[in-house]
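Re-run with default settings, no changes from the original entry. Doing this only to confirm the output is reproducible before filing.
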Amino acid sequence: MNSGRPLLPTLRNRRDWQSLLYLAALPALAAWQWRHGFSLPLYALMLFLTLGIGVIHHNHTHLRMWHGRRANRATDFWITLLQGHPTFVFYPAHVANHHRHRHGPQDIARTYRFGGDTNHLWGYLAHPVQAARVLYPAFVRWLGRLYRHRPGAWRYCMAQYAAWLGLWAGLLALNPAKALVFVIVPQLHGLHWLLATNYLQHAHADSGPARGRTLGYARNFEGLVNPLLFNIGLHTAHHEHSRAHWSELTRLHHRRYRHRVPAALNERGLVPYMFRVFILGTFSARFRSRPLMTQATPR
């Protein structure tokens, strides 16, 4: 008898076929090179796809990709294996911390916590390590609370650790050099961008609450980064509508928020911004961004 439930899981939004393509392409490219040898174009594509996996992880945390618990949990484990780190960390680090405090003084990974309100190349490169140092103790405390109050959820998180570390152990035993080049290094590249994105989106932004209709706590990037990486550049609209599907952010950004964001925080593109601020700005002050904090903020 048909219970009315679909035989196969269905996506909440058909635009997530792009997400599924990225989730399938990354391991396929790694497996092909593992067998046939290193290819610079394919390896470069792999490195790009690791950025996409991080964004998919972010989006899947805010709005689960599938109708159906089993499909969503399977996706959690698949992202864990591709990213080289458990997916549960986005809950304590991002949802319960960053989205709650919006780069304010209580945001434990706020960019101005580490050496002051900066926006330069060294700050960008160092931020992932600095953020990890304060985020991992938060993960441990969060896991401790889960262990005491929700042991089933704690076991689920531990299973993600087991899957990730088991994959690394198995591949390193099979061929250490190939495991390092084709799996671990790309994963570390993706994790760097996952953490460094916070610096790109918030360094030299305002840390205070909205002032009138002005929203100055985040930087937005327009251009090619958005169709390629699931509108990750439209950060203000995402903060204001954290449960909106990523495909809706273009409309929200242009209709509701772009005009409310200080002009200095609306960038035409990610790569031009990074080249101007982090490369040219290293040699000339005219290319550097200016801090928007209106008063000293506790570190």
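The chain has two domains: 19-38+53-207, 209-286. Strands lie at 10-11, 66-67, 220-221, 266-267.
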